[in-house]
Backbone:
């Protein structure tokens, strides 16, 4: 998995696709960390529209990036989460430490202003 990554208004936007499992997590972790280091982004937004599956290793990548941005006072958010993936995020507690938005523009605007949705 090669994520599409942009930085918009202090938010790193990672558009993921396919299965977020053990086979792709090392490469994904590396790509996200490189982008965070290079950009200095404060917040992170995951667009999961094209993600069909997520397992514990995928959750680990998300939680690791959450720790990095939370240490800088940033926030974690999601957009376009499909129901099967949302269920995993709910059961794991990830949605309790993040915000889910209906569209990317709303998410970026809210994160840039430091608001709590």
Residues:
């Amino acid at each position: 998995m090669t994520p599409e990554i942009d930085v918009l208004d202090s938010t790193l936007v990672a558009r993921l696709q396919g299965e977020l499992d053990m086979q792709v997590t090392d490469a994904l972790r590396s790509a996200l960390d490189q982008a965070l280091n290079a950009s200095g982004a404060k917040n992170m937004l995951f667009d999961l529209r094209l993600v069909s599956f997520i397992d514990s290793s995928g959750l680990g990548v998300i939680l690791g990036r959450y720790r990095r941005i939370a240490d800088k006072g940033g926030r974690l958010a999601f957009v376009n989460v499909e129901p099967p993936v949302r269920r995993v995020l709910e059961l794991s507690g990830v949605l309790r430490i993040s915000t889910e938005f209906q569209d990317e523009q709303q998410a970026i605007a809210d994160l840039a202003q430091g608001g709590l949705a």
About this structure: The chain is about 45% helix and 30% strand. The chain has a mean pLDDT of 94. The chain has one domain: 4-113. Residues 56-71 form the longest helix (16 residues).
